[in-house]
Amino acid sequence: MAENRVSSPPPVLDCARVLHYVIIDKSIEFSGRSLLFVAGEELGAVPCLAICEEKKNGGVLLFHCTDDWKRVGLLGPQVSFRSTGAYRAHLQRRIQSMGRCKYFAKSC
Q1: Domain of 63?
Q2: Residue 99 and residue 75: Cα distance in Å, rounded?
Q3: Is residue 104 within 8 Å of residue 18, measured between CB atoms?
Q4: Which one-letter DSSP state was computed for residue 83?
Q5: pLDDT tens digits along 23-80
Q6: What's the pLDDT at 108?
Q7: What is the spatial distance between Cα 46 and Cα 2, in angstroms, rounded to a whole number?
Q8: Quick check: is 91 in a domain?
Q9: How many angstroms separate the CA atoms of 57 and 64, rounded?
Q10: Which of 8, 27, 64, 103 would disulfide-bridge 73, Cβ 3.0–4.6 Å?
């Protein structure tokens, strides 16, 4: 069976500049907790995550995306992550074996 390849995200997602992104391989175990609810249901595992900077105020956002980089969920400033490092720590708690993920920093 051919592996489903995910391409890099565009430089901007929903008016926010992509700083870092993660492509989560199907072999990576999801912890089962996302702390993100969409339409009253907790959002489960997604194939792509992007740490982005808001254009308007420079806040840090975490986009939960489909494999074609369409946003299905968002953790924003109300969550109080003030840096990309804080989001990375959050992701490491959520995703077991995070070190095996394809984690990239976009060039600025």
Answers
A1: 26-105
A2: 22
A3: no
A4: S
A5: 887 777 776 666 788 888 888 888 898 888 888 887 888 899 999 999 999 887 655 5
A6: 41
A7: 19
A8: yes
A9: 20
A10: 64
What are 5's two structure tokens? 């390849």
Q: Which residues pair with 104 in a beta bridge?
A: 21
Instruction: Determine how β-strand 102-105 pairs with β-strand 12-13.
Output: unpaired
CB 43 within 8 A of CB 30: no
Looking at the structure of the chain, the number of domains it has is 1
- Tell me whether residue 61 is in a domain: yes
Query: What pLDDT sits at residue 10?
Result: 93
Residue 21: both structure tokens together: 């992104």
Residue 82 lies in a domain: yes
Q: What's the pLDDT at 36?
A: 80
Tell me: the pLDDT tens digits for 97-106?
Answer: 555 566 565 6
Cβ neighbours around 14 below 10 Å, total: 13
16 CB burial (10 A radius; 0-12, 13-18, 19+): buried
Q: In the chain, how long is the greatest CA-to-CA distance?
A: 45
Residue 85 lies in a domain: yes
Residue 91 token pair: 């992701």
